[in-house]
Amino acid sequence: MPDTNTRRLQVLRAIVEDYVHTREPVGSKALVERHNLEVSPATIRNDMAQLEEDGLIAAPHTSAGRIPTDLGYRLFVDRISEVRPLTRAERRAMEILAETSDDHEAMLEQTVRLLAMLTNQVAVIQHPQHSSAKIRHIDVVLLGAQKALVILILSTGKVEQRMVTLAEPAAEEDLHRIGQKLSEQLHNRSASALPIPMDTLISSVEPALRATMAVVANAVTSILESGRVDRIIMAGTANLARSGGDLGPAIGPILEALEEQVVLLRLLHEMQQDQRGLSVRIGQETSHESLQETAVVAAEYASGESGRGAKLGVVGPTRMDYGATMSAVRAMARYLSRILSEG
Amino acid sequence: MPDTNTRRLQVLRAIVEDYVHTREPVGSKALVERHNLEVSPATIRNDMAQLEEDGLIAAPHTSAGRIPTDLGYRLFVDRISEVRPLTRAERRAMEILAETSDDHEAMLEQTVRLLAMLTNQVAVIQHPQHSSAKIRHIDVVLLGAQKALVILILSTGKVEQRMVTLAEPAAEEDLHRIGQKLSEQLHNRSASALPIPMDTLISSVEPALRATMAVVANAVTSILESGRVDRIIMAGTANLARSGGDLGPAIGPILEALEEQVVLLRLLHEMQQDQRGLSVRIGQETSHESLQETAVVAAEYASGESGRGAKLGVVGPTRMDYGATMSAVRAMARYLSRILSEG
DNA sequence: GTTAGCACTCGACGTTTTCGACTGCTAATT
DNA sequence: AATTAGCAGTCGAAAACGTCGAGTGCTAAC
């Protein structure tokens, strides 16, 4: 016979599960019926009273059942939830990803879309950080009279570009030489190692080209700098609305917050992975007004050569199936890491 | 004194404008008050009865005012609406764009975000088509043991990449030579000219490299092919929700339709520019279930060297400020064309 | 620590009523 | 023929009202 305390947790779990499932406050009677707790509703009521006092559940109004509070979800996530293993179909879907790994960007998009589908929620993924990447190759291509394109290839396979306006017309070969010089001198340099040695670079070409070299080298710096600002790819925003009109009118502000990538980036950045390789923020824990009714589940994925990995995750209503979501996110992160490190 | 028919159009205009503004069905009395039609409500009622018979307006229920039908909006757009010139602030905002023109992709994103802000609606932009672009340069860079990155630079400044797995290990220099060969042979070739002369290409390198050349050339073909599938960048989805809970519960399906880029692409493709350089689809005209209550305003922009331009536009509720939206879209298209052709 | 019993609360929901915004029609007017 | 005033009639929105029942907390007994 389980002691009082463990049963209370059982009750909390039951409440969370029922509420996630039915979207309605759950009462003592329904509870004993659906789960086979072998006690009477009255007993459950006592437990519920206690849980309420502990701030784990709350009643929307007097004559209604209880719903979990953010704290309740938190406890649930930390101590009670069971990770639901992926279904066969879900595994398969992921494996198809590996075959799409031709274009870096495209693969991230695929990944995030898949994650959105699997979880039926909004999925986000952070671009891998430049920081750990090394410069592999630099190219300068003439586009117009005084327009050129500076192209930077990183060891992660990411390609960055920037258009520059040259101070003076230049020949195609000259640009190419400049590219070669840059490639040589910066090869294998970490992308986060700034500033780049401008003087050395400039004096490495004959005087006539120095002005052009300066412009190009500046562009390189600029690319490397902007690479630190990470970006987010998102998918499945429609799921926000489809979630049963559940988030109701709050959906507008949520969408805004999501479009405002900065907010989300800061949040993801703050989130520390726990020993399970996951991090979860629930409701107010997001410390963001418009995300009060949402929860974020995230995990780090390794972007090739280790380095501080970027994150991926999902955003959904606090009332979500944490078990399923957490396992999907974790599996996705692992799988992606594997693909990336193979490539 | 205007004749009966012109007044009827005036009435239609007044109804559209009021309805757009107030979001409420508008009645005869309110109409004469707010606009200075110098007749009595009764007269207006007669006109309204006629307009209703013509299918231009409808009454949601007996004791309510009238709202425009899709047909009503259509007439309004075609014949009555006045293009509202941009404000100074809006012009300025656009001019800032020009300064961001460093990265092709980034600029498109900026553009679409700006358009979303200006119109307070969802903005979309199609990637410029490859078709008119010419191949400027091709690069092959070694990434891993047997992994290489094929990079294609087009005359529009767009950069495409693809990762390939080599059949056998290759040296960095060899890959570079392959890149050079490809660059030489395909230089200035239109990106839409397929297939590329594989045989010539392959036989242009020494036998030991032929297998690798084949792999790389295939990747090039693949890039060129996928370039025909155009993509869409979107911004301002939050505006859908913010529009006063106006589209109500329909917002879910709309978001879905938007995420499903194919639908939108087909639609944009079908839309023919009128003499004003704009095309508008209203309600059912979109011939798409979930877009029944939305309208699409689009314009073509020239992507550098003429060629069939891609489109940009906005998606919003049928009840939108067509005047403002149309002018914003048109101005944006023109401005973007200018920037692109300059660069 | 459990449980049955019970009085009590309060929102959800269906019904009824009131209110007023509009309309369409008719008949008079220009 | 077009316009207008006047008026009866319609019908939805909002408020007021009552009923119902799910769910609670408490007490007293086990």
Uncertain segments of chain A of ≥5 residues (pLDDT<50)? none
Helix content of chain A: 40-55%
* Shape assignment of chain A: elongated
Tell me the quaternary state.
homodimer
> What is the structural class of chain A?
alpha+beta
* Order of adjacent strands in the largest pleated sheet of chain A: 7-3-10-9-8
Give the SSE order of chain A as H and E letters.
Answer: HHHEEHHHEEEEHHHEHHHEEEH
Number of strands of chain A: 10
Total of DSSP H or I helical runs spanning 4+ residues of chain A? 13
Cα Rg of chain A = 26 Å
- Biggest sheet statistics of chain A: 5 strands, antiparallel
Strand content of chain A: 15-25%
Terminus-to-terminus distance of chain A: 54 Å
Explain this structure:
The structure is a homodimer of 343-residue chains. Chain A has helices at 4-22, 28-34, 41-53, 70-80, 88-99, 104-119, 172-186, 198-203, 210-226, 237-242, 251-259, 261-270, 322-342, and strands spanning 57-58, 67-68, 122-126, 135-142, 147-154, 159-165, 232-235, 279-282, 294-301, 310-317. Chain A has 13 helices and 10 strands. The first copy, chain A, is of the alpha+beta class and 343 residues long. The A-B interface holds A 101-104, 136-137, 139, 141-144, 147, 149, 151, 153, 155, 157, 159-164, 219, 222, 235-238, 240-242, 245, 249, 251-253, 255-256, 258-259, 343 and B 101-104, 136-137, 139, 141-144, 147, 149, 151, 153, 155, 157, 159, 161-164, 219, 222, 235-238, 240-242, 245, 249, 251-253, 255-256, 258-259, 343. Chain A binds a DNA duplex (30 and 30 nucleotides) through residues 4, 25, 27-30, 39-43, 45-46, 48-49, 59-66.
